[in-house]
Amino acid sequence: MEQTFAMVKPGAVQRELIGEIITRFEKKGIKLVGLKLMQMSEELAKQHYAEHTEKPFFDELVKGITAGPVVAMVLEGENVINIVRTMAGATRPSDALPGTIRGDYVLDTGKNVIHTSDSKESAIREINLFFKKEEIINYSLATETWIYVLPKTE
Ligand code: GTP
Ligand code: MG
């Protein structure tokens, strides 16, 4: 089953949105297989945002993501990379639709409450950056037969 990485950013932790955000994924039927509250170092932040090194807002990005604790998570499910990204909503607040996390909670691009992996490659890279193998838990949910048509043939 596919896995992705998501992170509740410092602003959302301060705004007490951790439960609200995780609840949305749980209600969708997505399985949490890794979860931690952590303070990111500047080094980890720079690695995480390596693709944005040349952007004018890079320093602001690193400062913002290290401004307080974050909640990092690994989520598992069918097509979960795209689905979690869709649930997070568009980067620009004016494009983020109501019903998405950013559509419901964000007014400023620089304070956009959640990070989600944007591709298979990013998901693998980011999961490995934040989680050790033993921190990702392989288990079944009793509800799985009510969430998926099983057995999966593909
Ligand atoms: P992430 O899931 O956080 O990676 O967001 P994204 O994939 O929707 O956007 P992208 O990877 O392009 O940008 C990474 C982060 O940089 C965004 O989540 C924003 O917090 C921030 N960001 C992007 N564009 C701007 C900008 O024009 N100004 C500022 N201040 N921040 C920006
Ligand atoms: Mg991104």
UniProtKB/TrEMBL annotation:
Classification via CDD domains: NDPk_I
Enzyme kind, highest EC tier: transferase
Domain of life the protein comes from: Bacteria
This protein's name: Nucleoside diphosphate kinase
Active site: 115
GO biological process: CTP biosynthetic process; GTP biosynthetic process; UTP biosynthetic process
Similarity annotation: Belongs to the NDK family.
